[in-house]
Request: fold
Amino acid sequence: MAQPSVVVAFTSRCGSTETLAHAAAVGTVNARALPRLRRLPDDGAPVPPECAATLARMQKEYVAPTDADLTNTPGLIVVPSAGMTPASEPWRPLMQTLERLSASGALAGKVGAVIDTGDPATTAAFSSALAGLGISLVSVEGAARAHGRAVGDTLAARLAQPPR
Amino acid sequence: MIAIRKSAERGFRDRGWLRSHLTFSFGDYQDGIPAFRALRVLNEERIMPGKGFGPHSHRDMEILSFMIDGHLAHRDSLTGPHVLGPGELQAMTAGDGIVHSEFNASDTEPAHLLQIWIAPRSEDLTPSYQQIGYSPEDARSRLHLLAAPEAADRERTAVINQDARVYVADIEAGDRLTHPLGDGRHAWVQVFRGTVDVNGRSLETGDAAAISDEASVALSGAGAVLLFDLP
Reply:
């Protein structure tokens, strides 16, 4: 059976949001999907000294999402750092790309989730933005891993349906 | 019966930062033999300084990393970070899902390792991470057990979820090591240094032997091997 892929896009400077992104990715693997972890570019804000080594590691280990990532994967999980909005600098280019893809119909049928990183306003803002672009958000109780699993399960169920 | 897999017959991929010799079919290399028993992947990797594999996922596989030279920095969704060096083996049960990254821990020296995938006895296991070490004396002129389905000392032998055993041996001139094979058991011998005779067949660095329907494996010469005893 084909393995659906899921972009897990996140921002992180000190590693705590990265941990949640990993948990969401593991959830997709639990559902036999293939996660693609993508870290958004930094916004140039000052970095706490204690985070410098972690930030340098993440800058080495991750790549940013590409248009192809967003076009070709049926799943999208966003993990925004607490306090951010879809208009915040790290997210704005991604959201603009999603708006363009939405306008062309390329987001039709995509399944997504927004991971709560501790700020309900951030979660609500991103959920509203993604839903407004036509991405079907999973509704599930639980933490990041449960959301990842729900996205993967939803995609797997679609693949299992016989073609019309 | 013994079948030889010469080093030069393996697949080779050069991505600049990574040079891989692929014993079995792997990724876009599908010209090789698909596997040997439960042994699914045996890649000899050279990772350039500071480079590595960014975070990626695995599922339903026992993944072993055996360092030949250099150091590997490892992080995963369970634990970490860990640094693996010569004389150490990392064993990771991917189970129902794990995310990890592996990078050369050095900015100046390449990392040289064998990455090994063994099919687990069942799916959806609980992920885990182990790292064990051995001294040169442990493997000198003997087969030292690195991984097995059970272990009396888990700091010296990694526990894997398959009825397979992995040994390392540093064979010196004049040695003759014998490993008995039980009924229905098979062996894969991978030479990673020197020249080693395996049941009378001479193997060079990078060569391997697949052994079935034999009572034992006899090793001599001067070199180092991993021996996989497989169901």
Remarks:
- The radius of gyration of chain A is 15 Å.
